[in-house]
Amino acid sequence: SITNGNGTAGNPVISAASGVFTWNDVTASPQTIAIGNGYVTDLGGGIAYTLPATASFGDEFAITGKLGLWTLAQAAGQQVNFGSTGTTVGVTGSLAATNLGDSIRCVCTTAGASTIWRVLNSVGNITVA
Q1: Which of 2, 39, 82, 106 is the most exposed place for a label (fewest CB within 10 A)?
Q2: Residues 106, 90: contact at Cβ < 8 Å?
């Protein structure tokens, strides 16, 4: 961002966003995803994550495994595209880790309550339902 005239001798102040996720060590389930956050699954019984109720174009989040597996659930109208495969639209669709350490990073490609997410990166063998 640029703020006009607030710097030394009236010069503009320029601030750059770091673009780094806030990482969370998740030890309780369920966990609702917050935009701009990364989640480390740290519960032997696994973590059930849910997509945010709405998102804006370009919003991102990440999930990685440490201890226990994870699943990512959707709300009505939501979908996650993994390569050329999409989850079933709505509450019956999901992604799931099959091994410890499985990871995803997602970006919102369609905003609003009927959000569509795209997996940008993945590690492991993710189940798409």
Answers
A1: 2
A2: no
Burial of residue 84 (CB within 10 Å: 0-12, 13-18, 19+) is: exposed
- Comparing 9 with 49, the larger pLDDT belongs to 49
Q: What pLDDT, in 10s, does the model give residues 16-56?
A: 565 678 999 999 999 999 999 999 999 999 999 999 999 99
Between the CA of residue 116 and those of 15, 61, 62, 93, 119, what are the distances in Å?
Answer: 31, 13, 15, 12, 10
Give residues with Cβ within 8 angstroms of 30, minimum separation 6: 47, 48, 49, 50
Distance CA 105, CA 60 (A): 7
Q: Under a CB-based contact definition with an 8 Å cutoff, are residues 37 and 22 in contact?
A: yes
Longest dimension (CA), the chain: 59
